[in-house]
């Protein structure tokens, strides 16, 4: 009776106009604030008002070709989150950053700095990047092969965690009397020499409140799942059905257990909640957004997901079978490809229907309904073992986040599934994850399964 | 009679305990706040209270070996400045970043983001980095040759400015009705292909309030002066005597004029003002700080500047002539080397005396006195053509900045030399510099003299 029920974790996935691809055309959205820091600060404060675990920004290192029909050209996530840290005090701050186009010293340093600035609220969504457009901005004509990117990511993480552990917690002595600031024996070089990186260290930032930022990952391919199982503490994933979501969670957990990481990583499927006072109101909003979709944009996005050009094919027929490549042929975002080809093959949807279906959450689960129905959709997956929490992707911002915080969160709190106050101060506290000890047995073991 | 007198520009150079190398041992300093964002936010607010043009952070990409005897392991400047931007509204925000160990796409993006976040207050102090310790953190056993670093810096700047200009000011149309967000014809690829970088572009950040961050530079070697003359809008420099300072300013201005850049760059020598209510009080503070110096630290720093190991030589004799290499032999910070060897050769100072002399400003001018005397020191150089303003380097923080803002600034204002209110909102406004037009004749001409 007195046992605390298992608690949900909720992350707010923020992007300028909201997650529906037509959001920017809806009167409730604020696409003119794409580069306005106060817009994002206000969204973060809303998430904090709702006691959410964290906010999160996706990222890419190029303008995607279709800037004609959607918001682009916003702010770099780490820089933005530092400005958000200054006006919030509890909500976690998760930035996406690429291991393919960064150097580990820079990134380790920036996350350590953000962790200090936010008093322990930094998280890193580790991505390997998947597009030739990004490679073209970094001296490459082709992007690295999928498997090579994950090898690089693994070594990158080994270097970064080594750097975060290079200052002991008690390295700074600050003895004004004797003139000793730090103990050189408690600050160590990492002397890393691997196939991708040679980094001497130590980091030039003192050990941060969390030790390491929370490590998040979102790849769902074979390589991605293995990486998550070995290294991630939380996983963002796109799942359309409860069955698939449960299977994914079981698979990743079993892989992690095989590496001695029981209970990790936390699984956070995306959900795009279209909220109305009634279900009818929510459906009307969903239809209104579908009406506002720019078909050329949806077609281009779908073509991008499938790695084929769909323009010229009849919109009201399914995409021809021969256009759907096998997963082996895709050197990009494998998990998103699988979702799309399932919609075509399993449900037999037409191109137009697929575009409408993907409009809300780009492959993530979309649920339209009254607040209780959204809470039901969350609770059912949570109780069925499909999720430890959710990546909340409001279709329109800021209104969709306001609705979630003001109406869905209280319902989840009434059901005893979600905190009514923060009980800790760091992002790791919110997710119930331990602080890694510098060079302790525990932190070593987190990397012990590295393939390098 | 009605002509506005020429106005000084003042930049506050911030570092944790203050600029005197013994500052951290003085009771007024706060070395325990090296990673405390509120410490730096408060310093920035003090600078803003004093109507200063800007604040500035130096940077390096490694822990220098002597962490035993001085503060190290602080925060990364760009991340820190974003958090400072959130709690200030006028003061400019200048971050140091290296062209040798960064990719132009990342850095262009971060400065554009900071410029948006600060509503047009970003500045970039362009450095080429000079130590093998830094190279060792970026996959290199040796650092790049001095001349190669400047070639890379020149191409880096060409790419970065191209990226900042890749979105026209009017690229975003935001037509909700017709479904057109941006005009693809007003966002262009830069298609850069050079010896160091291949970058397609466009940048994934919309054009920022200032267009480009203010471009600052601090190298005083032959290569450094040429780079400043061609590209910098402001120059930080270390000068010990009025004669040297005037010569330096004339030289850089003449070089710039030869490239068609009349009146640029602004010259901002460093000054470490040791302020007391009376001159005697200031001298007492200076002596107190010299007393607190850790001689091993000073010796290591001096050895580093000269690129020779001075340990084992008698402290009360000048460094032996044969230990002073020629400038050609130094592949590091050439300007600082020249200053030190002048102290030895020109003034015949002993090793101990040089360490004491360098303790206050690491080669920058140190002036101890009452507020009026500090103002005299500033005014005399300003009127003699040695400076357009100064890089203020308080010996101890926060007290040294408080003293400057509360006592020296009002004196400069009484003399009609410094603003009493901000008249513009951007960093370029404060320095009286124009906003570059995207791809206009003017912005082209700023790069026209590039050697690439």
From TrEMBL, chains A, B:
Q: Which Pfam families match?
A: Bac_luciferase
**UniProt-annotated stretches for the region Disordered:** 429-452
Which residue stretches does the UniProt record annotate as biased composition, category Basic and acidic residues? Answer: 429-442
Where in this chain does the record put each Luciferase-like domain? 27-386
Query: From start to end residue, where is composition biased (Low complexity)?
Result: 443-452
| TM ranges | none
Q: Keywords of this protein's UniProt record, alphabetized?
A: Flavoprotein, FMN, Monooxygenase, Oxidoreductase
What does the similarity note say? Belongs to the NtaA/SnaA/DszA monooxygenase family.
This protein's name: LLM class flavin-dependent oxidoreductase
